[in-house]
User: What shape does this take?
Amino acid sequence: MTQDATLTHLLERCRRDHLAWINGDGSGYELPDDGTILGAIGGHSSGGEETGRRQVALASQWRVGTGTIEFINGGVEGDLAWLTLIERGRVELTTDPAGTERRWDLRVTEVFRRSHDGWHRLHRHADPLVDRRVLAEVTLLLV
Assistant: This one.
């Protein structure tokens, strides 16, 4: 598979997993034991069964959503591939009254590793895509 074909394949997978997540299904973000996640709601975790269960539980807090992915950049080197993306979404959370829609835009980096049975997500870093702010406002987020 060429680099372009690999990136197209992985981008479609990211799109599918993004739409599944914002519609309550986090199973696409299960990781191998040596995988890592720096998730959009904070914190970090390593892969394995516990992270898979956590991703499924977290995604269940989304009732319904629509979204798109904007490809920023990516590449393939040997058995590793990376993509940088902006995930844009409009979502309803289960904690809100039905019909309450929220913006859910993330800046994302995904790393995949090729093995004998295909490409597997190895790392995901996602955090909210916030509008530009002055430094003093940003430091308040870290309090």
